[in-house]
Write a structure and sequence with these properties.
Layout (H helix, E strand, L loop, with lengths): L8 E5 L9 H15 L5 E6 L14 E5 L5 H12 L4 E4 L4 H6 L3 E5 L3 H4 L6 H16 L2 E4 L2 H11 L5 E3 L13 H8 L5 E5 L8 H12 L7 E5 L7 H12 L3 E5 L3 H10 L2 E4 L8 H8 L4 E4 L4 H5 L4 E3 L4 H13 L1 H15 L4 H19 L1
Parallel strand pairs: 1-2, 1-4, 2-3, 4-5, 5-6, 6-7, 8-9, 8-11, 9-10, 11-12, 12-13
Helix pairs in contact: 1-15, 7-10, 8-9, 8-13, 11-14
Length: about 375
């Protein structure tokens, strides 16, 4: 067994950081970068698959990336590799299969419990993953919840545990925002626009958001456009957006997956950012928008009120009339937008990946001490 003076070695599953990473991929990427930047950083062994790009991580003597073949066998190989590299802690930011095998040597991050809270907007795959997650949280040495709201749901569904810690995420560092000429190339013009960001899936509630926008903008020539950025997901949402584009273009623009550089440009210049999710375990896109000073309007669901505080306008995610009224206020009231911008910048400063990494490192250390 290692002692207190032995360098801590942490093995991390970084597969979510593969092609077109969504929220969990951003969590993994920025956590690894922040851990590696700590003065007392642990030794990191990153386990990926062929979709993971090594350029995403600060590889070097204390941070190495190992690529394993895809498929179900990945988990078996990861379990064996953890032993062969003499890892102290295994951190699973999403998939819970390996923690089931490693048990007390595993740290598991829980992002949300959407399949339990909103089964109607979940797939069979995500519901099966939820069942595995529930078993793994009982077996793992430590569990990280990304918000107080997520922790409270875990306790309500699974009972309280002294092995769970709340560690908040933070806005990722973005490349420098390009000029307005780049914005023009992204959007085909620099006219005012509202922005929404997220995977095109039912939980993000784009159907109601678009319908409310259509009602609010009807008959108004100078109304800002609605721009949606995010890769296609599952369910009827992608098809709904295709149909809406046929009807609402050019007032509606759906960009699909967007690079960090272009997303920075969109955040910075948006009239306002809107998130109408039916549930969120954290809510990273609106917090990122806040870091650029974007006025934000958000649904009252999940962790959003906890993370965003008093900075946004809030609305009922299922009330299209209320959402439409929010669109109109944001379009017409310059003073309101200036006030929301001030609140956004103030709120975003409370979060940092350096703090997230430091707290996560303490979780690793406390678990290793317990295992000795």
């Amino acid at each position: 067994m290692p002692n207190a003076h032995t360098a801590l070695k942490v093995v991390i599953d970084v597969r979510p950081a593969g092609d077109s990473p969504a929220g969990i991929g951003q969590y993994v990427t920025n956590l690894v970068r922040a851990l590696a930047a700590l003065e007392d950083s642990p030794s990191l062994v990153l386990l990926g698959d062929r979709a993971v790009d090594g350029d995403s991580f600060p590889l070097g003597p204390k941070c190495q990336l190992l690529i394993l073949p895809d498929g179900l066998g990945w988990h078996l190989r990861a379990r064996k590799l953890f032993s062969s590299v003499q890892g102290d802690i295994y951190h699973a930011p999403s998939s819970a299969l390996v923690p089931l095998a490693l048990r007390r040597r595993a740290v598991l991050t829980v992002h949300d419990l959407a399949p339990a809270i909103s089964p109607g907007v979940s797939t069979v795959k995500t519901r099966l993953a939820y069942l595995v997650l529930r078993l793994a949280t009982r077996a793992s040495g430590r569990v990280i919840a990304v918000s107080r709201a997520t922790l409270e749901r875990m306790e309500a569904l699974w009972g309280k545990s002294d092995r769970t810690t709340v560690i908040l995420e933070a806005p990722r560092p973005f490349p420098d925002c390009p000029s307005r000429e780049r914005l023009d190339s992204i959007l085909g013009g620099t006219a005012p626009y509202f922005l929404a960001v997220g995977t095109q899936e039912p939980r993000k509630n784009f159907e109601r958001l678009v319908s409310a926008f259509e009602q609010a903008s009807q008959g108004k020539e100078q109304f800002p456009r609605l721009v949606i950025a995010g890769k296609p997901g599952w369910g009827a949402t992608p098809r709904f957006l295709e149909t809406a584009l046929e009807r609402l273009s050019p007032n509606l623009l759906v960009l699909g997956f967007t690079t960090d550089r272009d997303l920075a440009c969109l955040y910075r210049h948006a009239r306002a950012f809107l998130i109408g999710s039916l549930d969120e375990g954290f809510g990273l896109p609106p917090l990122e928008a806040m870091s650029f000073g974007s006025p934000v309007a958000a649904s009252k669901r999940g962790a959003l009120p906890e993370i965003l505080g008093k900075a946004p306008l809030y609305f009922d995610a299922e009330d299209e009339q209320e959402i439409g009224a929010v669109f109109r206020r944001l379009a017409d009231d310059d003073e309101l937008c200036r006030e929301l911008k001030r609140r956004s910048l103030k709120r975003a400063k409370l979060f940092s990946w350096a703090s997230t990494a430091s707290q996560t490192l303490e979780v690793y250390r406390s678990l290793r001490l317990e295992l000795e």
